[in-house]
Amino acid sequence: MYRLLLVEDEMSTRKWLTHKIEWETFGFQIIGVAEDGEMAWAQIQEDPNIDVVMTDVRMPHMDGIELISRIRSAALDIEVLISSGYGEFDYAQKAIRLGVAVYLLKPVTKEQLKLEFERLKIELDEKHMRKNELLEAGRIRKEKESLTKTEIFQRCLVQEEEMPELAQRLELLDKRFLRSPYLTIVASIDHYSHFTMSYSMKDQRLCSFIVMNILSEITQSYQPLEAVFLEPNRHVFFIPLNGGKCAADYTRELGYQFQQALKKYLKVFDITISVGGSGPVDGAEGLIDGYRQAVKALEHKFFTGVASIINRCELTVWDEQCQYSLDWEKRIISELKRNDIVSAYDELDRFFDLYTRQGTAEGVRWVAGELLTNITKQLTDLKSVHVNSERMRKLLNELEQMETLVELKVKMKQLIRFIESMFEVDSLKLSPVAKGIEYIKLNLNRDLSLQEVAEYAGISPSYFSTLFKQEQGRNFIEYVISLRMEEAREILEKTQLTIIEIGEKIGYRNYRYFTRVFKEHVGLTPSQYRDKVIKKLTG
C-alpha cells in the first residue's frame, strides 16, 4: 500500500477526494490532507516517508509549483500529480521541468483517477522491483566477501567450537575484541515461519540482506566491533561499551532505531523485528556467553509480545523450570465435561497466568502441549471417540509455532474448541451404549440407575441392559463399580484426600461400604493401597 498526501485548498474537493474515492482499491492509503502548500511541506518534513503527493496549483501561502520545487530540491523520492483548474501552458511547462508524473485538469472524474493511479502503482511497483534487483546483486557480492567472517562466527556462536583457535582467528579479524568491553545485540524477524511461507526463498534472502544493511548503517555511529548475519534469522552486532551508558540503555536505544528505520525504509516486506541484548562481556571468551544472553533475552518476547526490545539485565526471572499444575488441568477438564466452554476458557486463562511470572517460552509451550494432550485423552475416554496420533501431532505442532504467550492462549482455545466440535460430530454416530457410558462417567459421583442412563441413551432399560452386556461383556452394575474403583485408585495415588472424601467423590456416601467394595475388587483396603503406593515410590 503506497502512502498518499492530498493537497487541496477547496473544501468541497477535499471532501470528495477523501470520502468518495476508494483509494485502497487502487493500492494507495491517504496519510494526510493539507489545505495549502505550506501545510503540505510541513507534513513532508515531519514524515518524508511519503510515496505520492497529489496537489492543486493555485493555493494561498505556498502554491503547488513551489511545493514541488522544494520536494525536488530536497531530493525526496516522491511522485507528484497535479490536479488543477488552470491549464495554462506556463504551469504545465514548469510541472514538466519538475518531473511531475501527471497533470490533471479539473473537474476530475473517478474514472480518470482510477486510470492514472492504477498506472502510477504499476510504475511504483516496477521502480521498487528495479531497486530490489540492484540490492540482490549487491547482496550476492557482499555475501561472497563476508563468507569467511560468517563461517567463523557460525562455528563460534552456533556450533560453539573450542575457543583457543577461534581467539587467534578473531584477533586476526579484529583485535578490538580482545581490548574492549562490549555487548551483543541480536535482532530477528517476528513470525519467521509465516514470513518463510509468504515469500519465495529469493525474496527471503533479499529481505534479510536489506534488513542487515539498514541495521548495520544505524550501528555505524556506535563503532561496532563486528556485524554478522547468522542463518536463518539472527542479525548479530557487537557494540563497544563506552560513554557511560549501560548495556540496557544501548539495547533500548539501538532497538528503537532499528524498528523505526525498518518502518521508514522497508516498504516491500511487511515485517517487524524484536531485539535482544546481552550484559557486558569481554574478549573473545565473551562471545559465546554474550550471544547466549542476547538470544535468551530475545526469546523472552514470548511473554512481552512481538516487536519487543529486551536486555538480559532487565529480566528478573531467567531460567526457571515450569511446574505442571494437575489441579488447574482438572478444573479445565471438569468445565469441558460439563460443556461449559466459557468457564473452561476462564480457567485456561488463570492456568496460563501462572506462567507469566516464571518459566521459559520452551517450558510454557511444553506445559500447553501436555495440557492439550491430557484434555484430548480425557475427552476421548469420556466420549468413547478415537483421535489418531497423526492428528494429535499436527495439533501439538500448531502450538509449537506460536511466538508469544498471547498467541499461544488464543491458539489453545481454538484447538480446544476444534476438539470439542470434533467430538460433537463424532458423538452423533455413537451407539446407545457409548452414549450411556458417557453419561455414567459424567455422573460417577452420585447414585445412578439403569433406567436413568437408558433414558439418556434414548432406549428402554431392558434393551439398554441387553445391548450393554453384549458390547461390554459385563452388566451395568459391574461396569459402574469397575469405573469407580479405577477412579478411587487414581485419587489415592495422586492426592491426599481422606478415604471418606474419596468415597464421596465417586458416589459412595457410606465409608464402610466403599472400603468393603474396594477390598473385594483390589484385594486391599483403600488405606493399605495408599501405603503400598507410597512405599513403592519411596523405595
Write structural notes for this entry.
With 539 residues, this protein is α/β, with parallel strands linked by helices. The protein folds into 4 domains: 2-125, 3-Layer(aba) Sandwich (Rossmann fold); 146-314, Alpha-Beta Plaits (2-Layer Sandwich); 326-427; 432-538, Arc Repressor Mutant, subunit A (Orthogonal Bundle). The protein is 61% helix and 10% strand. It is built from 25 helices and 10 strands. The protein has a 5-stranded parallel β-sheet. A 5-stranded mixed β-sheet has the order 7-8-6-9-10, with helices on both faces. Helix 16 (361-383) runs antiparallel to helix 17 and helix 16 (361-383) runs parallel beside helix 18. Residues 3-121 form the Response regulatory domain. Its main location: cytoplasm. Residues 110-137 form a coiled coil.
Main features:
5-stranded parallel sheet, Alpha-Beta Plaits, Rossmann fold, 5-stranded mixed sheet, about 550 residues, alpha/beta, sequence-specific DNA binding
Residue windows where pLDDT falls under 50 for at least 5 positions:
none
Give the neighbour order of strands across the main sheet.
2-1-3-4-5
Give the amount of beta strand, in percent.
Answer: 5-15%
How does the helix and strand content classify structurally? alpha/beta
Topology-level CATH name of the largest domain? Alpha-Beta Plaits
User: C-alpha Rg, in Å?
Assistant: 34 Å
The average pLDDT value, as a whole number, equals: 83
CATH superfamily of the largest domain: Reverse transcriptase/Diguanylate cyclase domain
Number of strands: 10
Main CATH class of the largest domain: Alpha Beta
Q: What is the count of DSSP helices, taking H or I runs of 4+ residues?
A: 25
Helix proportion range: 55-70%
What is the domain tally? 4
Span between N and C termini?
A: 68 Å
Shape designation = elongated
CATH architecture descriptor of the largest domain? 2-Layer Sandwich
- Largest sheet composition: 5 strands, parallel
